[in-house]
Amino acid sequence: MQIPDKLKNYDTLLFAAIAAFAIYTFCSYSGIGISPDSIMYTSAARSFVANGTLLTFNHIPIVDFPVFYPLFLGIISFITRVDPVAFGATLNMILFATLIYTSGWIMSRFVPSSRIYKWLVLAAIILNPGLLQVYSYLWSETLFILEALFFLIVFRKYMLTYAGKWLVFAAIIAAVACITRYAAVTIVGTGGLLLLLDRKLPIRKKIGHILIYGVICISLLVANLTFNALHTGTVTGPREPSITSFGKNLFYFGSVFCEWMGMTPNMYTLVALPLAIIILAGFIAALAFNFTRRKLDSFENLAITFALVYGLFIVLSSTFSRYERINPRLLSPMYIPALWGYTSWGLLLLKRIRLKNMRITVATLFILMMLGYITKIYLVDKKRYDEQIADDYGNPGYTDDGWMESEFANYLRHIDKSIFDPRVTIYSDAHEAVYFFSGMSSYLVPHKFFKKDVEKFYKIKRFYLIWFNNLENKELINIKDIEKVKKLKVIKQFEEGAIYEYEGEDGLNSN
């Protein structure tokens, strides 16, 4: 008896509820995790509610990140009159539940499909440590990962029908994703690559559709970047050249997958690099195989294509531009498509096995492998729970106990702002922290790489400096560098840091 369509996804609803509860659990002690990026998003969202602008806490347009996620937070805050930090946990519970439901909906349409397979993979998605971390923080990936799945759904509808309306709809999703995270150019690239490879589409129609798709996809991104250039002089903020090689980035890429597979760090040295090569080469081989079979329109192939394009983009961009080292957060949008790409073949294999006993044996082995994997990542999650929730610490960041119980942070929360001359600029090695705890605007001390900015900073005749000792950033000039050139007066001293003032007196080593 065939199950009615309306009943097919009731089990998926249950998994979605479990997903929401998982995020609730990891946010139950200290609320949503807050990182420096989170504070940038939050301050821009508050600016939108207050003034209809998207300015960060230091009164400049948000540039390092695209505009849609803070706009998204701002719209919710405007409607609910609740601050993003306060509703962040609830929002991420909803987003993660929606992600799980969407994933289940897609897997129900795999060819062939399997309810047991869907259950196992949904469990593996919910328990993935990288996704649980992402959805425990106020980060734009929470929205971007969902947008990527929406794109796969709509673009597949286009590939099945070649109807212009579905192409435009897919392009609009890609355009919005591009102003959610700059890495969403990989969504654009996924659609463009599939259009180029599709041999069913007549060449004249293909050219027209590629042009339509490309123009719509990049429209919002071009507008965002143009606005940035006109108002700040840079398109995505100051960027430094990479200090990691292609081979090193491949190793870091593989290390993330080692972590996701439950391997211990001492295994990374031998396994990470070969694993990265195997993963990316496997996606290339699978895409080539589907191209020869003229079978590009399946969800499985769309997922493989996105995983390949996204993975290569992260490795290559990390080789040319410096940002945070490749980690689970950066690769989190790739996890679900990669998981589908490397497990859905099992369904095809079972379909082709004619002998019942052999089919049962293979199915049993597959289930046992998946259960083993699920158990491994569950143990990783449990360790995180024990360290962050059970032991009463919270998600690492500005809401964890280390900060909440800090004497310096507590002083900033209740600081008398009259101690500062409003005409004098405040600098810090963690300007996000200054804003988060005190509500005051400040500016980041310059990066060592930008020599002209450093020289300009040292020429300033008077400034305040709020310095956090436990947040040493090797890319920034440090307090010792500054004290060699400037004679700083201590306004307030703490074990965790200090507030200084400079009034024009140079240090002993000044020129």
Task: Write up this protein.
63% of the residues lie in helices and 5% in strands. The chain is mainly alpha-helical. The protein has two domains: 5-390, no CATH class; 406-502. Helix 2 (36-51) crosses helix 19, helix 9 (185-197) runs antiparallel to helix 10 and helix 13 runs antiparallel to helix 14 (328-341). It is globular and about 85 Å long. It starts with 9 loop residues before the first helix and ends in a 9-residue tail after the last strand. The model has no long low-confidence stretch (mean pLDDT 92).
Descriptive labels:
2 domains, 21 helices, pentosyltransferase activity, cell membrane, membrane, single chain, 511 residues, glycosyltransferase, two-stranded antiparallel ribbon, mainly alpha, Glycosyltransferase RgtA/B/C/D-like domain-containing protein
Largest sheet: 5 strands, mixed
The overall average pLDDT, rounded, is 92
* Percent in strands: 5-15%
Count of the separate structural domains: 2
Structural class: mainly alpha
Write down the overall geometry.
globular
Gyration radius, rounded: 25 Å
Q: Please report the total strand number as a whole number.
A: 7
Give the proportion of residues in helices.
55-70%
Return the string of H and E elements. HHHHHHHHHHEHHHEHHHHHEHEHEHEE
Strand order, sheet with most strands: 4-3-5-7-6
Uncertain runs are none
Distance between the termini: 87 Å
What is the number of helices?
Answer: 21
